[in-house]
Amino acid sequence: MEAQEPIRVVIAEDEELILHNLVKKINTMDPIFQIVATAQDGKSALDLVEQYNCDLIITDVQMPIWNGLELIKQVHLRFPHMKKVIISGFNDFEYAREALRHEVTEYLLKPVKTHELEQVLARIKLLVGNERGLLKMNDLGISDHYDSSPEKIVEMVQLYFKKNFHQELNLEAISKQYNFNSSYLTKLFIKHTGEPPSKYLISLRINEAKYLLANDKALPVKEVGERVGYPDQYYFSRIFRQVTGFTPREFRQHALGLQHS
User: Fold this and answer.
1) Could you give the CA distance from residue 190 to residue 162 in angstroms, rounded to a whole number?
2) What is the spatial distance between Cα 46 and Cα 197, in angstroms, rounded to a whole number?
3) DSSP SS3 for 218
């Protein structure tokens, strides 16, 4: 059996003793989990996630600069493929509900019990392994998808979009990989996600654009559009306004105003 690639992990926890214990536990549980960096605030953690191209973020809720919920929100917008585990010392449904809005994979309570952490890591290992297998099938251009279930095909298309949304994508060409026409693939997508693939792709792109506009004020709007797959600035601005109700410049001004309020 082919060995699974390491799962790269960043841990964000401002209490040094808890951070040390988490690192020690994970290192002894499964060598596939490779802790590449740790941070004691959410902002530093996001920088590390980007630097190391991570697969998993484990974060406490209460931290300086950015708390864990803000970190999870930014990771969800910037790196939608990443798995996210949030740890809270508060048995509070509101924290869990807010975390789930940003597709948190798991939610643990302090003090973290060893057997619960083991179960969480086992589930994440399985999820990551499955997704990597699907991506590998895509990258190899395997076309015999007639044995795949409709759910698996939709999942593969979603993963392909997440990996390539910054490029020009052609639904007809993607459909041909699965021996379908684009209208049939669209029907499958709507049935299993509730929205057409075009809307799903727009959401990925606009979420990334919102992140760039709010966090890199020196980046020109035209370049933001190019980075998210819209080389035509006017078309980018029109789509952005349709989705958010703001032009990109208005959104940036609003976001910067909130940061300084």
Assistant:
1) 17
2) 28
3) coil
Amino acid sitting at position 242: Q
H/E stretch holding 55 = none
Tokens (6 digits) for 199: 């809307």
- DSSP secondary structure code for residue 3 in this structure: P
Structure confidence by residue, pLDDT tens digits, 167-224: 877 777 777 666 667 777 888 889 888 999 889 999 999 999 998 898 888 889 999 9
SS3 242: helix
Q: E-assigned strands of the chain?
A: 7-12, 33-39, 56-60, 83-88, 106-109
The whole-number pLDDT of residue 96 equals 58
Q: Who contacts 10 (Cβ-Cβ below 8 Å, separation ≥6)?
A: 35, 36, 37, 38, 39, 45, 48, 49, 52, 54, 56, 57, 58
On the question of a cis peptide bond just before residue 150, with omega within 30 degrees of 0, the verdict is no
Task: With beta carbons less than 8 A apart as the criterion, state whether 32 and 82 touch.
Answer: no
What was the pLDDT predicted at 261?
45
In this predicted model, what pLDDT tens digit does every residue of 90-136 receive, in sequence order?
Answer: 665 566 566 566 567 788 888 888 999 999 998 888 878 767 766 56
Reading the block at residue 84, the tokens are: 């996210």
- CA separation for the pair 111, 196 (Å, rounded): 42
Tokens (6 digits) for 190: 């709507």
Cβ within 8 Å of residue 186, ≥6 positions away = 171, 196, 197, 198
Q: Which residue has the tokens 């933001």?
A: 224
Structure tokens at 194: 């509730």
The answer to whether the CB of 46 falls within 8 A of the CB of 66 is: yes
Length reported for the chain: 261
Percent of the chain with pLDDT over 70: 82
